[in-house]
Write a structure and sequence with these properties.
Chain B: Keywords: Sigma factor, Transcription, Transcription regulation. Chain B: This is RNA polymerase subunit sigma-24. The complex is a heterodimer of chains A (122) and B (413). With 122 residues, chain A is an alpha+beta fold. Chain A has two helices and six strands. Chain A has a single domain, classed as Alpha-Beta Plaits (2-Layer Sandwich), CATH 3.30.70.1060. In chain A, strand 3 and strand 4 form a beta hairpin. Among the domains of chain B are: 89 residues; 94 residues, no CATH class; 102 residues, Alpha Horseshoe (Serine Threonine Protein Phosphatase 5, Tetratricopeptide repeat), CATH 1.25.40. Chain B is 69% helix and 0% strand. Classes of the chains: A alpha+beta (122), B mainly alpha (413).
């Protein structure tokens, strides 16, 4: 099954420690080589993006940055047998932050992506 | 852990197990020199985790916990069995120093494990079961479910596989130059077999078992990562990514199977196609096109055709010509007939079909389906209808039978 993991966080003002970056690279390589992580990328700050809203029948476009306290940092797509496996990769990712970057708070949302198994008759 | 998760459930423990088991078994096999024993020890550690983690919570380094537990069991075992003194010494030394698995950055242990699990001395179904167990981390129950056989059958295959490895003294070793080709072929074949079982279920009411196909796809990715310099390993990954990319279009909304030319290509999985083409390019850069690279190249032609009409059949026919020389077999000839039928006209296709030796694939439903399609293209409707009817009688798959029966019914008089 396929899961989209979106990472949201409020970053401390300090740059991410080297040990964290090394740990993320290692974990990413591990997840990729095991065949579980099939895509991932970092996301630029919302200042580079925009929001398209429909409200009261009217479409409005607002350039970033947005006022949310947390920014979306990155996404990853996992292909795992169970939800728990995708959750475990996400847990390990956050545990790395806990270990190496005090003050970092964030959350990883694990969302199942519909696949052929969800189609009628499958 | 939040209040909602006081301790991990069985599913969480099994998820961690699936992530860790290949490295765990591989490292234990290196220490004990016995793949079967390593697998037993790893299973014992899993049982311990299933007992303890729901109460104590998941340890901070679950992989290390499993490794330490398994090693301690090994030491107990060897202490009781005085014949393994040297192993005791080796294990005692490493256990006192190591509290988490020694990360093997290049994955050499896993590669050795893969070669051992797919050892040609093992029967094919043993290789399949052992690979799913040791490399994909599936339980006996899950393997049995995937292959629609009773649990004890799978349990027996695994224990016999382990016994064979032990009896033949097969250890974790990388095959020498002279043997490498055979062993590589076996590894890739096992993964391909698993994929095919999932993708085109050979029996039962299911047209495919997506979970099993995905297990094989993950194994192919892992194998390609373990063997970055082997073109055929990249080729197999490319082939499986590109084939699996079509899975969402193989059913219609009612669940009936849809063959390649009729598939809604907007439902093909773009991410898997991209990954497949990337792997195919890696294979090309490594040179020497073997059977998997050639098949992946053919799948790539289909994947990059925006519509069925735009398919580059001339290139596909050429690739099948090469494939038939590299790996002559009747199924390749059959596909080659179809490709030439599209590239050069139905008569050319029927001429290739006629090169099949007498009686070859007579029981294979798709032989008759291909014949039916070529005959229909040639306007020989009555013969086409008869061929589709033969296809329907020869398939063991209910969904396929329905499809071929429909084809026969729709062929004009």
């Amino acid at each position: 099954m396929r899961y989209l993991v979106v990472l949201e966080a409020s970053q401390p003002d300090t740059p991410p420690p080297d040990e964290l970056m090394a740990g993320i690279m290692r974990l990413g390589a591990e997840a990729t080589q095991s065949g579980a992580m099939i895509d991932n990328a970092g996301l630029a700050p919302s200042a580079d993006g925009a929001k398209v809203t429909l409200d009261g029948g009217e479409v409005t476009i607002t350039d970033g940055p947005f006022a949310e306290s947390k920014e979306m940092i990155s996404y990853a797509i996992y292909d795992t047998r169970t939800k728990e496996e995708a959750v475990e990769w996400a847990r390990r990712f956050l545990a790395l932050h806990a270990e190496h970057w005090p003050g970092w708070t964030g959350e990883a949302r694990v969302l199942r992506v519909f696949g052929p198994e969800d189609m009628p008759g499958a | 852990m939040t209040a909602a998760h006081p301790g991990p459930g069985r599913d969480t423990v099994e998820a961690i197990w699936r992530i860790e088991s290949a490295r765990l078994v591989a490292a234990l096999a290196r220490f004990t020199g016995d793949v079967g024993l390593a697998e037993d020890l790893a299973q014992d550690a899993l049982v311990a985790a299933l007992e303890q983690w729901p109460v104590s919570g998941v340890p901070p380094k679950p992989g290390g916990w499993l490794m330490t537990t398994a090693k301690n069991r090994a030491i107990d075992l060897f202490r009781r069995d005085g014949t393994h003194r040297r192993a005791v010494a080796a294990l005692g030394r490493t256990t006192s120093e190591v509290t988490e698995p020694e990360i093997d950055p290049v994955g050499d242990d896993e590669l050795r494990l893969l070669f051992a699990a797919c050892h040609p001395e093992l029967k094919r179904e043993y290789r399949v079961a052992l690979t799913l167990r040791c490399l994909a981390g599936l339980s006996t129950r899950e393997i049995a479910g995937a292959f629609l056989v009773p649990d004890p059958v799978v349990g027996q295959r695994i224990s016999r596989a382990k016994k064979t490895l032990r009896d033949k003294g097969i250890q974790l070793e990388l095959p020498g130059e002279d043997e490498l080709r055979t062993r590589l072929a076996s590894v890739l074949e096992v993964i391909y077999l698993i994929f095919n079982e999932g993708y085109r279920a050979t029996s039962g009411a299911d047209w495919m078992r997506p979970e099993l196909a995905n297990d094989a796809l993950r194994l192919a990715r892992r194998t390609a990562a373990l063997m970055p310099d082997v073109a055929e390993a990249q080729g197999l990954q490319a082939l499986l990514e590109l084939t699996q990319a079509r899975a969402p279009a193989r059913h219609d909304r009612q669940g009936a199977p849809v063959l390649l030319p009729d598939q809604d290509r907007s439902r093909w999985d773009r991410l898997l196609i991209r990954r497949g083409l990337d792997a195919l390019n890696r294979a090309y850069r490594l040179g020497a096109a073997g059977p998997y690279v050639l098949q992946a190249a053919i799948a790539g032609c289909h994947a990059t055709a925006a519509t069925a009409v735009e398919t580059d059949w001339a290139r596909i026919a050429g690739l099948y010509d090469v494939l038939e020389r590299v790996q002559p077999n009747p199924v390749v000839t059959l596909n080659r007939a179809m490709a030439h039928g599209h590239a050069d006209g139905p008569l050319a296709g029927l001429a290739v079909l006629a090169t099949l030796s007498d009686g070859a694939l007579e029981d294979y439903a798709h032989r008759h389906a291909v014949e039916g399609e070529l005959l229909a293209m040639a306007g020989r409707h009555e013969e086409a209808r008869a061929a589709y009817t033969r296809a329907a009688t020869h398939t063991g798959n209910e969904a396929e039978r329905h499809l071929f029966t429909q084809r026969a019914a729709r062929t004009p008089p």
